[in-house]
Design a protein that fits this description.
By secondary structure, the chain is of the alpha+beta class. The protein folds into 3 domains: 3-149, Creatine Amidinohydrolase, Chain A, domain 1 (3-Layer(aba) Sandwich); 162-301, Creatinase/prolidase N-terminal domain (Creatine Amidinohydrolase, Chain A, domain 1); 305-588, Creatinase/methionine aminopeptidase superfamily (Creatine Amidinohydrolase, Alpha-Beta Complex), CATH 3.90.230.10. The protein is globular and about 70 Å long.
Length: 596
Amino acid sequence: MTISERLEALREELRREHLSAFIFPTSDPHNSEYTADYWKGREWISGFNGSAGTAVVTLEKAALWTDSRYFLAAEEQLKGTEYQLMKLKVDGTPTIAEWLGRELASASSKEVGIDGMVNAASSVKELIADLRREGGLTLRTNFDPLARIWSDRPAIPDNPVEIYPLEYAGEPAREKIARIRKALREKHADGMLMAALDDIAWTLNLRGSDVHCNPVFVSYLLISSKDATLYINKEKLSPQVIDYLRAEGVGVTDYERVRQGLKDYFEYNILVDPDEVNYTLYKSVVREMVEEESPVKRMKAVKNEREQAGFRSAMLRDGIAMVKFLKWLKPAVEAGGQTEMTVDRKLTALRAEQPLFRGISFDTIAGYEEHGAIVHYEATPESDVPLLPKGLLLLDSGAQYLDGTTDITRTIALGPLTDEQRRVYTLVLKGHIQLELCKFPSGASGTQLDVLARQALWREGLNYLHGTGHGVGCYLNVHEGPHQIRMEWKPAPLVAGMTVTDEPGIYLAGRFGVRIENTLLIVPYRETECGQFLQFEPLTLCPIDTSPIIQEMLLPEETAWLNSYHALVFDRLSPHLDADETEWLRVHTQPLESAI
């Protein structure tokens, strides 16, 4: 079916159900950022495959909302369809409710549909209020038109689940559950429904492969003061895994029985995170509800000593692969025949040679020149371009290792650059370094640090609209919260033991993009009369290209940081490289002289 045919099939169902519009988010019953193919309904109905966006279809029009990471990609993918692109956070862009209020002002039906199983309770409640304000529109949540019109819809994945070894997890599942129960008591809650797939995987020390690049499995976990029940397709569990769960105090029942489990829940009250639990399950709760953030998010975000050691080991192996790749890259480009897709495959192959490699942690972004300005660009056979010995290649990539997850971006000069490219590169590097230099009190929010990565850019009238940093899971999802570093207010405190990325960038449409990213660990700095102060330890081990730098633009402290970082990279990686690779690394980590 073409997009037009899919829209017409949808509209037939809307007319049959007396609905004037339907809303398709990018989510699943667990409010996941990345979803299994079964729940990629927004992509199926619109053709847009970015990881963030919402499609809205009325009987006469269609529109898609997405953020700045996907503006260029969405424009390209929506060409030839009736979809209008709505750019989030851009002046003049209406909200979904505002747009529907205008479009349905004269409609015979004022009812809008949304599938309550794939929308978080908090977002649905907010949408209900917003629609009511826009001319009294109402929201129906118990209908999924895709069940009727998506004839070749993939099945819900049933891949096997595996036990995550304690030597990497660092804490038994039963002890994590005990900590969760203690946190629940502090919130005056007797139990909780856990819906986030990475939280469940972390809690139970299990991993899966139900979602591309994310080692999670489709399930729910219901914890009471005495019991814990995993709701999952039992076919995914071997007898060994079932025995393991029983020993950790966890029972198992069918995935589809979670609603019945909520009705049978016997405690006085239950904690439900409305940002995590979908609206349908939220409305299924019959006991008194404690609406609070899940305590598991912050527990998982603080890595224990074993997890921190695993990150350092994984980053070492990832750095070895990166050096081998970077040493190969420029000569290969000069020889000809390399494209965005071939260098992606080369890097993945080099990572796959490393011990404990389990796959990539997200689809690689290899954007050459103007493609680098597309924040979440992914090369396809149709868009793939040859790499030439000139200009910039933006390479954002990562891997899943059994002991850690990596996320790194390097922007590489393949040859001569323009003055504008060198200036933008240096400004982005300055922002990256200033954040890494930061010392801050424990409990500060990432929003309070964000300006450090942007101040040099702002002085030049430049800015980027994505976040500066996100948490990274331990052989889990590459994007992990609740903490972030970004302009928008995110109150989650930064504390020792958290991982977070540092990835400022600038994207000039039709010309080029620059982003430089390390994954960092938050560690103690010093204790003073004003309390505990923290700093960042770079976990990523890979040289930063110095050839584009305009040295006069760097402050002495920025040059000193870069030299210190490159000395660390050389000291850690060189013992694991052959003679030629070590010499290459020595040349590319040579200290810069301060120009000031």
